[in-house]
């Protein structure tokens, strides 16, 4: 197992980065009317996931790190609800 030297070495951060990039590509296809609504919310939530993992990594205390991981997890659930909304509005399909 490789030693973790930076938050960029964390598998959870790598996966969240991939998700963030996929969301960035996906929301470009949403209607212009959603630019300041769903698109903005999804962009901010997807960025929040990686940002909070990185910030938590930079904290000195384990309990602080855990709190930022919890916030990151909350952003993932926020994204899940936004995907449901996008599906309900017909912007995306089940895939």
Nearest-integer average pLDDT = 94
Distance between the termini: 34 Å
Low-confidence stretches: none
Q: Could you state the order of secondary-structure elements as H and E?
A: HHH
What's the tally of helices? 3
Largest sheet: none
Overall geometry comes to elongated
Helix proportion: 55-70%
Rg over alpha carbons = 15 Å
Topology of this structure?
Layout: H1 11-27, H2 38-57, H3 62-88
Helix pairs in contact: 1-2, 2-3
Give an account of the 3D structure.
With 95 residues, the chain is an all-alpha fold. The protein has a domain at 36-95. The protein is 67% helix and 0% strand. The protein has helices spanning 11-27, 38-57, 62-88. Helix 1 packs antiparallel against helix 2 (38-57) and helix 2 packs antiparallel against helix 3 (62-88). The longest helix has 27 residues, at 62-88. The termini are far apart.
